[in-house]
Amino acid sequence: MNDSCHNWLDSPIHAAWRVAEGQRLLAFAKASRLPDGFGDLDATGHLPPRARAGTMNTARMTHCFALAHIQGVPGCLAYAEHGVAALCGAMRDAHYGGWFSQPGGHHDSGKSAYLHAFVALAASSAKVAGAAAAQGLLEDAVRIIEAHFWSEEEGALRETFSRAWQLPEAYRGANSNMHATEAFLALADVTGNPCWLERALRIAERLIHDIAQANQYRVVEHFDALWQPLPDYNQEHPADHFRPYGTTPGHGLEWARLLLHLEASLAQAGRDVPAWLLPCARGLFESACSQAWQVDGAEGFVYTLDWDNRPVVRARLHWVHAEACAAAAALLLRTGEMHYQRWYQRFWGFIDNHFIDLAGGSWHHELDSSNRPAGTIWPGKPDLYHAYQALLLPGLALAPSLASNLARNVTKR
Question: Would you list the domain boundaries of the chain?
């Protein structure tokens, strides 16, 4: 491999820039702390009046502050432990088990696989960080996933239940299963149980090897309970936060990275590695870049496309571009091909020019189709997870998973 291929991933200056930017994001995110978890910050970095803690954001913040503590950032363990305490407290349904979307949410709309995947990820990272009560949270999250969400028959997660684990939704989603794949890789490392690797592989095989590969490497997002695609799902609500109509190129980029983590994790565990993982990662990345980058004439990735690859929601979201950086870095590390480095540099240049907000703090979460700050889909700046991971992943091997990887690097020093 030509060493010049890694002049950014191996560059001390680039590494220092990523560390400094991560510190800036962490400092901004600390303002999201509420007595019962973490809330959503507005565009100026403040909690709005009557802000409420949310379980998704609390889980994501717990995960990120646990990662920061593992890195050696002072003061972050207290934030991770605050998140664990919230997830073990009023956010948890003490009667039926599982987690509400908000503390004490006895009249919540249901128990979702997406949310529970993030609780499992937070618990696994907090466990590696040595956070108090993390082990109990981890055991609880594993028990709930195995008892209710994981379907051995389907090789994937069921989507949503009522509070009492009744009335299962007649829907299956790629988004929740994608984040379950990420969580399962972490669970495999933290628990030492290889069943989580096998489950992650089964999800990826269904959604990517069997379905996306047959659809020009476009991730099909929505299915009925029998895993039949629903191509018109949410056509009347195309900009939905979690279930938008059409294809979501950002998820193709995210899946590309996850396939490479899965490949490396399987090899590290001494298990059979399917030959399709790398070609599918390449295909997903190339599909997203060719179909969604500058597709409407302006720089950046559009949020969604229809089934003829025409832009539907033209907003540029920060998480898509963070995942683009992480995917390009993973492919560069895996292949050593300069093609991916050029994309990596292009993505960070776009983020620096348009998303990074040095005046107001953190990153703008959304740009309009002319790359001006907006807030139609994602108002404010509530998310630390995507941007922070994009700053960490380029400096690490593809396996083990993020928290375990950071801990291993600290131990080596």
Answer: 7-412
User: DSSP characters for 109-128?
Assistant: S-EEHHHHHHHHHHHHHHHH
* d(C-alpha 214, C-alpha 192), whole Å: 34
CATH architecture designation of domain 7-412: Alpha/alpha barrel (1.50)
Asked if 181 and 262 count as a contact pair (C-beta separation under 8 A), the reply is yes
Work out whether strand 33-34 and strand 37-38 pair parallel, antiparallel, or are unpaired.
antiparallel
Read off φ and ψ for residue 317, nearest 5 degrees.
-105, 140
Quote the CA–CA distance of 250 and 371 in Å, as a whole number.
17
What DSSP string describes 245-298? SSB-HHHHHHHHHHHHHHHHHHHHTT----TTHHHHHHHHHHHHHHHHBTTTSS
- DSSP H/E element including 201: helix 195-204
Q: Which residues partner with 77 through β-bridges?
A: none
Residue 372 has which token pair?
A: 């001006």
Given this model, what pLDDT does residue 413 score? 60
pTM above 0.90, yes or no: yes
Please tell me the predicted confidence (pLDDT) of residue 2: 41
CA atoms within 13 A on the CB side of 213: 15
| Encoded tokens for 271 | 């298990």
Please list, residue by residue across 17-50, b when 16 or more beta carbons sit within 10 angstroms of its beta carbon and e when fewer do.
Answer: ebeebbebbbebbbbbbbebbbbbbbbebebeee
Please tell me the distance from the alpha carbon of residue 136 to that of residue 140, in angstroms, as a whole number: 6
Per-residue pLDDT tens over the stretch 66-117: 999 999 999 999 999 999 999 999 999 999 999 999 998 876 778 999 999 9
Which regions of the chain are under pLDDT 70?
1-6, 107, 413
Tokens 């981890």 — which residue? Answer: 138
The three-state secondary structure class of 222 is strand
Q: Which amino acid is at 13?
A: I
Q: Which residues are catalytic?
A: 251, 386
Question: Cα–Cα distance between 344 and 267 in angstroms, integer?
Answer: 25
HSE-CB for 387 with a 13 A CA cutoff = 29
Residue recorded with tokens 């899946």: 255
Cα separation, 292 vs 309, in Å, equals: 8
